[in-house]
Write a structure and sequence with these properties.
single chain, 12 helices, globular
Length: 324
């Protein structure tokens, strides 16, 4: 008895190619046109962002590098001078004064912005009535304009301002404290403004980190008899240490770029004799105006970039070592 012949396989529509194939046939490949469209589609979405980065970040940076090797001025193209601008900067007393002020600014501001916002975040994390009002109050300086903040503190710290008036009324001082007319006091006054404005900003970072600390750790430590201070140093700080390193890196970069506080409090000269000038302030003074030395200003900008990069790499190294 002869077995019946198998029925012909029904044709199945190939969804990728649009044609028809029989059941059981293997598709050897996809349409080259579709494959071609797949690889460049993500770049099409990225193109506007990449174009903006190239125009407003990459190109200005490369142009700054090129101009730093020229004697260009604000109204002339200049010619190639090699490393003369860098040699001039390293021999310029104003450059070293500004560098010292910037490094001092960093050494004072960064520890304050690493530790104080953490303590503030721990305090406002408590679930007590009205704590939301305090969180909003601490964050208010962050959303305020830097110029407005500087003008407020200028009014507070000037010779006839609020602080000196209160000090004289209490008999603490016999004459006004020169917060804004002494270079050293002006620099520390600007540091105070920077810290005051950054407290609420970095407090939010720490609140996010504290929210990820397991409550079971604090409960277990409390059962073992550890008090709030002991739990803070034994549990809270180790758990938020990566965030502390991140805040330290961000605040260090911001401290090296400080300009507005010095300008508002000390004026266009950067304090008496320019004694409170930082590197960004010096770059502005050198590069602006009809006699502005663009090439020299670009060289100082590159040196500031290298200094910032060094502290950023240091922060990355510390963070990497902590993770290991």
């Amino acid at each position: 008895m002869t077995a019946p012949a198998p029925a012909a396989a029904a044709p199945v529509r190939d969804r990728r190619g649009g044609g028809r194939r029989r059941r059981g046939e293997r598709v050897t490949g996809a349409d080259p046109g579709l494959v071609h469209r797949r690889w460049w589609t993500p770049y099409l979405f990225l193109a506007p962002g990449l174009l903006m980065v190239a125009l407003f970040s990459l190109w200005p940076f490369l142009n700054t590098v090129v101009l730093s090797f020229t004697d260009a001025r604000i109204l002339s193209g200049g010619s190639f001078v090699g490393f003369d601008n860098y040699s001039r900067a390293l021999a310029d007393p104003d450059f070293w004064t500004a560098t010292g002020n910037s490094v001092l600014y960093l050494l004072v501001v960064v520890p304050c912005l690493v530790l104080l916002p953490l303590a503030l975040a721990v305090l406002v994390q408590a679930k007590v009535p009205g704590i939301g009002l305090f969180r909003s109050a601490f964050y208010t300086p962050v959303i305020a304009s830097a110029v407005v903040v500087g003008l407020i503190w200028q009014w507070v710290l000037r010779s006839d301002g609020l602080v000196n008036t209160v000090f004289e009324a209490l008999g603490v001082v016999s004459e006004p404290v020169p917060f804004l007319t002494d270079s050293t006091l002006l620099l520390f006054s600007a540091m105070l403004v920077t810290v005051w404005k950054g407290l609420g900003y970095y407090m939010v970072f720490y609140l996010a980190a504290l929210g990820n600390v397991p409550a079971s750790l604090h409960e277990a430590a409390a059962l073992d008899g550890a008090g709030p201070v002991r739990r803070f140093f034994s549990i809270t700080i180790p758990q938020v240490k990566p965030m502390m390193l991140l805040v330290g890196t961000l605040s260090a970069v911001s401290a090296l770029r400080v300009f507005t506080e010095i300008y508002i409090l000390g004026g266009e000269s950067g304090g008496p004799g320019g004694g409170a000038r930082t590197l960004p302030f010096l770059i502005r003074q050198v590069g602006l105006g009809f006699a502005g030395e663009t090439g020299y200003a670009c060289a100082i900008s590159l040196l500031l970039f290298l200094l910032t990069l060094a502290f950023s790499l240091l922060g990355h190294r510390l963070s990497k070592g902590d993770e290991e």
